Amino acid sequence: MKWLKKKDEKLNKPSIKEEQAEKLAQLGNKLRILREQQGLSLDEIVGLTRIPRRLLHAIEAGDLNDLPEPIYIQGLIRQFADALGLKGAEFASNFPIGSQPVSLQNRWKPKPITQLRPVHLYLLYIFVIICSVKGLSQLLNQAALEANNRQDRQQVQKNSDLTTNQLQAKNMEEIQVGSSIPEPQAVEIGVTLKSSSWIRVVADGKTEFEGILPKGTHRNWKATEELTVKTDNAGGVFMSVNQQQPKQMGQPGKAEEIRIAAAKIRS
Q: Residue 172 and residue 178: Cα distance in Å, rounded?
């Protein structure tokens, strides 16, 4: 009789597919409720996560048939949860992925381009952009350095040809002109998030921050020449300049970029 009882227990135990479907329905329902509580649409989540809308809808609906392999589903749930201000990795770990069989025969076989999924294409696209930006930045920096060195050599050569009196007169003229040149005054911005949004802040040509900030976050940045703020959800970001009254950057779900130059003061 014992072996019959054990056999019945095995038959009643849910399969990994059934367990995944049940967990996906629970997690998707929680994500949908939290999204609606924060007043966010699926299209706004698409802007924050870059996940196609049909996959987000399938997660909320608990539809396994319209989603990729379990390991990718877990990653999509993590991104979804991160965008809503949750601990994505911890939240997504509740979704079971089961054992992923590995075939040694296919391990070294290259995967055709036609089989690449949207997630793979997205990662490849990001990698290409990063490499292109780095290469262009290095070329521009090298060109600027060469131009500065060339100007310095020309200036040294020009000064060496001047007589003592001419050099003194030139220095006095530069002092008078320099006293009237306006000096830059530092600019400061404050950013307050009314909803979770992706933000990039560039101060004097250097990227100070790039990533997703959750709802309720307040951050400040300073620059001596110029500050650039870019977001993909302008309606969820309020920005103040030099501690003035904060203003909304733009429309919800719309990308916006604002550049603020430092004010000039005369010495």
A: 10
